[in-house]
Design goal:
- By secondary structure, this protein is an alpha/beta fold.
- The chain has one domain (4-122): Response regulator (Rossmann fold).
- The protein has 5 helices and 5 strands, in the order βαβαβαβαβα.
- The chain has helices at 12-24, 35-45, 61-70, 89-92, 108-122, and strands spanning 4-8, 28-32, 49-53, 79-83, 98-103.
- α4 (89-92) links the parallel β4 and β5.
- The two termini are 18 Å apart.
């Protein structure tokens, strides 16, 4: 069974790029385009990995990360932060489930490598 990845980003091009890149590598990819619906999607999809943007309409990525880290059902879910805000990296360093931090624009091979290492880490 393929690993499930949920990508939450408000930029359609970014969602398409992440979806295409990870599906090509054999992952099952779901997308969500705003923070307000992200929690419902996380509960519905139960992803093995979350790719999360910081600046989102509705609820921002940091607030979502706080909620994820406090919920027993999601606190161990590995997360890759994907953002144009390099300075926000320090905000996310305190969360053990943040396994990667990528600044836009990024290289697709870096995304694949980060996703693969996240899965390797969570199943060792």
């Amino acid at each position: 069974m393929s690993k499930k990845v949920l990508c939450v980003d408000d930029e359609p091009e970014m969602l398409s790029l992440v979806k295409y890149t990870l599906e090509k590598a054999g992952y099952e990819v779901f997308t969500c385009d705003n923070g307000r619906h992200a929690w419902d999607e996380i509960m519905r999809v139960r992803p093995d990995l979350l790719v999360l943007d910081v600046m989102l309409p509705g609820i921002d990525g940091y607030s979502l990360q706080l909620k994820i880290s406090q919920d027993p059902a999601t606190k161990d879910m590995p997360i890759i932060i994907l953002t144009a805000l390099e300075p926000s990296k320090t905000l996310f360093q305190k969360f053990p489930q943040v396994v990667g931090f990528m600044t836009k624009p990024f290289k697709t091979e870096d995304l694949l490598q980060t996703a693969q290492s996240a899965f390797n880490r969570s199943h060792t």
